[in-house]
Amino acid sequence: MSLWVRLCAPWEATVAVRLSSEARGADVRAALTPWLGQADVRLTTRGGQPVYAHSHVVGDMDLVVRARFCGGKGGFGNMLRAQGGRMSARGKHESQDSCRDLQGRRVGSVKQAQLLAEYVAQASERQAAWDEAQKRKYAKLERMLGRAPKSMADYEAAAEKLDEAGETLEEEGAQPSSSKRERLDDHDYVEQSREIVDHVRGAVASAMRKKRRKGKERAA
């Protein structure tokens, strides 16, 4: 019987071979030796079904010979790891906030959520620090007057003393942090300190205006 065999790249040819009626796949391979030599090939039908060395062949079969190639660049996992390595190398110089993580969330949105959570978690510490600053301002005001202020006149007197001493109620620099953070539990005292500090700021502004007027009158 005669069989038509199509040889794929690198041979690119169609050849006819004559075989016995009981030929097998190994006989077909042997008949193709003049064209293929000892090349490692794969014999299949046109539909892609493999023809093994022990498989029977019949005269109406159309066979295809394809060369086998060794190795490769790996599967999808290797490609994904390689691409991840390249993205990590670029990440030092490029922003990836518009990219998405494995859950489909944008990296930029995840970062913002983390920053917001940290900000909310530190709210009590910020409030305690602000209350402590108000307490120090109130203590400084009492120290300048020698007693607790009771009226606007006391605030103005404290403002004048602060101005003469060249001091202000604002902190000039960060205070060194103590080993143990002090917590203010007297909320009424803190609220009173806030009101007094606000009054003192107004009194300081008023005292400064009066001082400027006196300076202008003396100059005139």
TrEMBL record:
<feature type="domain" description="SDE2-like">
    <location>
        <begin position="71"/>
        <end position="205"/>
    </location>
</feature>
<comment type="similarity">
    <text>Belongs to the SDE2 family.</text>
</comment>
<dbReference type="InterPro" id="IPR051421">
    <property type="entry name" value="RNA_Proc_DNA_Dmg_Regulator"/>
</dbReference>
<feature type="compositionally biased region" description="Basic residues">
    <location>
        <begin position="208"/>
        <end position="220"/>
    </location>
</feature>
<dbReference type="GO" id="GO:0005634">
    <property type="term" value="C:nucleus"/>
</dbReference>
<keyword id="KW-0508">mRNA splicing</keyword>
<dbReference type="InterPro" id="IPR053822">
    <property type="entry name" value="SDE2-like_dom"/>
</dbReference>
<dbReference type="GO" id="GO:0008380">
    <property type="term" value="P:RNA splicing"/>
</dbReference>
<feature type="region of interest" description="Disordered">
    <location>
        <begin position="162"/>
        <end position="220"/>
    </location>
</feature>
<dbReference type="GO" id="GO:0006397">
    <property type="term" value="P:mRNA processing"/>
</dbReference>
<keyword id="KW-0507">mRNA processing</keyword>
<keyword id="KW-0131">Cell cycle</keyword>
<dbReference type="Pfam" id="PF22782">
    <property type="entry name" value="SDE2"/>
</dbReference>
<protein>
    <recommendedName>
        <fullName>SDE2-like domain-containing protein</fullName>
    </recommendedName>
</protein>
<keyword id="KW-0539">Nucleus</keyword>
<dbReference type="GO" id="GO:0005737">
    <property type="term" value="C:cytoplasm"/>
</dbReference>
<feature type="compositionally biased region" description="Basic and acidic residues">
    <location>
        <begin position="179"/>
        <end position="201"/>
    </location>
</feature>
<keyword id="KW-0963">Cytoplasm</keyword>
